[in-house]
Amino acid sequence: MTSAQTPRPGDGKTLHLNAFLMSVGHHEAAWRLPESDPHAHIDIDHYVRLAQTAERGKFDSIFFADSPVLMGDPGRRPGGKLEPTVILTAVAVQTDRIGLIATASTSYNDPYNLARRFASVDFVSKGRVGWNIVTTAGADAARNFGLDDTPDHRLRYEKAAEFVEVATKLWDSWEDDAIVADKALGVHADANKVRKIGHRGEFFSVDGPLNLPRSPQAYPVLVQAGSSENGKNFAARYAEAVFTAQQTLADGTSFYRDLKERARLLGRDPDTLKILPGIVPVIGDTEVEARELDAELERLISPEYARKQLADRFGLPVEALELDRELPEELPSEDDIQGAKSRYTLIVNLARTERLTVRQLIARLGGGRGHRTFAGTAEQVADTIEEWFRAGAADGFNVMPAVLPSGLDRFVDRVVPILQERGLFRTEYTETTLRGHYGLARPENRFAAETPLAVAQ
Amino acid sequence: MTSAQTPRPGDGKTLHLNAFLMSVGHHEAAWRLPESDPHAHIDIDHYVRLAQTAERGKFDSIFFADSPVLMGDPGRRPGGKLEPTVILTAVAVQTDRIGLIATASTSYNDPYNLARRFASVDFVSKGRVGWNIVTTAGADAARNFGLDDTPDHRLRYEKAAEFVEVATKLWDSWEDDAIVADKALGVHADANKVRKIGHRGEFFSVDGPLNLPRSPQAYPVLVQAGSSENGKNFAARYAEAVFTAQQTLADGTSFYRDLKERARLLGRDPDTLKILPGIVPVIGDTEVEARELDAELERLISPEYARKQLADRFGLPVEALELDRELPEELPSEDDIQGAKSRYTLIVNLARTERLTVRQLIARLGGGRGHRTFAGTAEQVADTIEEWFRAGAADGFNVMPAVLPSGLDRFVDRVVPILQERGLFRTEYTETTLRGHYGLARPENRFAAETPLAVAQ
User: Fold this and answer.
1) Is the reported ipTM for this assembly greater than 0.90?
2) Which of A144, A146, A191 is the closest to B75 by Cβ?
């Protein structure tokens, strides 16, 4: 479809684009392509070039996922990567406008250190940082932090909520105009505008103030990507942008309405919460060429390795899955899954609805890992983006190139110009901060009106 | 003195220089000078320029101290600063050779996260990172991390030792040649060369492996700066470079011999432990001009604020110190001081030996905070550096300019050429890594000879 004449959802607004950058691409087997640098995941210049490409395409932001654990089998795919806030910092000083989002865990960080690090990157980037708040599933991660197993899903979200409270209090512990820098009087800050936060909660006790003045954006843009019940309620309360995996337009629209309504019920303007479904675009000059690229990637997946990964996700022995049969009829319920609950259900539903064999399911997941893969021409990719945007399923998209850098290059060079021509996407940056790009307000300081509770002696 | 003809300690070797960069300078009142930018502490470009100046001067490294707490009174001096590993990353991509050292606390970090972050900066800098290991004193810091008070000094050091064990195990969890990147076979790493560490200790349980391959230097250069008994024993075992405060040549020589001997008794080659006393050089065209600059800085110190800071350090009420009298006869013993023990004793000894009034002591500390301030011409600064180096009190110096950037500019432009002319300091970098600059070996991998204990499934 092309641009419509009658007003619909999305009219009068433009969409937002985030580039999800997974070293050599979102596809499990991308590193095996002739074009891929198998050392790219530890090469900062690779990430900087990707960020510069996204900036050339006027993307709102780039995003690095993360977990404090070695994910998957390093024998089978690039293992580990540079720590995301380190990547963002290196990118920040080599770009001007692009927003910079990184995942960091509320289960395996201290709020004081995390608040300080993100505020530091906000200063370095002059207001371009975002924080994807995750609770981190998995016993493997837990065992890197003195625990035997991952804490309960609900408990992790309760801790995450308190973590965000502490972090935002710390970001409010300095008023914006606290620094007066009066050399003659020898007064650097107005000490009445620098406060201890005195937080005493269930999970954290933190005195403050932060050892850093209030940063350009005050808070990083708060991002969230869990779509379980706990995840959606958390997002409705705290998130300003949500990354989500949605396979169909119907599911996308339903999720969009649900989350916006949850935000409204909590007294928020739903427009202060931007929803970005993932799309894994595989772009060819023709549809046939795109499908061939997709098929080439499929062939590079090791089915035995992928079968093991899938069985682990389901909490089943590997023998329970047969490559050329459908999923077993008896599967755990979402309640029994401790991590990535909604992704689990999405995968099961996808397999059941399309009656996929395990081998077929693996192929679908290898490309998208639950996100929607779309193979086609640039025009077709632009069409589906426009369709979802106008149908009220998305405020924008989390673009997850299957192969990097080529997949991002193609998107920027071929899809972005079409979206711009249709008036759906910016042709130049009009703002300088990530909050600006997403049309989000700079947070007020909760303490600014209070009686001083100064730290000064 | 000038260069000697007869062999002595230091002959045949050249010295090492580290630049200790405290925003606008090491002096408490530096920000009040007309030349100082009072916002420099939150301006990344300021730090990058300083690093580039140090690199122009062929320094081995730059160093950023840190504590996860707002130090001092933000009303009286610039409060807080950018997180040091963020600063190092921004500097790394805008310099080529200079080493990059940051403080991070073993009491208020998780080993997994810290090991990953420093390894990431080592990749980004291509082998130039160093870690100053601190245990972090002070109840204020403890109260940002859920504790009521700082843990006992000895306990902090025991935890620090185990922390370093865990971190170095994680840095060994990948062998250097683990990545094979065989695209045809679909084998990214030799999974036998990626190991869980399975650490179970008194303070930490960490499974590993690290989510990052072994970095260019394998380990950051391990730096330490505590000079208490616990601190010296820790340094003798783990440190590769030591920053220390020494007021007199006799004290410096004695400390140097003591620490090298402790290292030798632990079976180490003492030359693998570099000792760098601090020096706060105040450089003038003439000695008189240098002393005037020093006096100008003294005048800008607020005596009442400094008196309070000193009383806090001594654990005394402020009334116990009178500005124009010497220190009280009765003072706590070092055993009763929970943080910065050796610095406490140094300050007391300095005041007693020179019979300083509190006001005079404050002036001395405001410039050096316990480190040795030396005001003179560039030639005189070079002389004292050479004297200490040849006398066996130093392998190099921790240069702590009182005012930045001017103090570093002067040192680089005036003192470094003299040291180079005397054959005491490099005229060009000959190495590319921080280990290379300091003449330190790249650590062997403790697991490389072991039977595989692979993580791969």
Assistant:
1) yes
2) A191
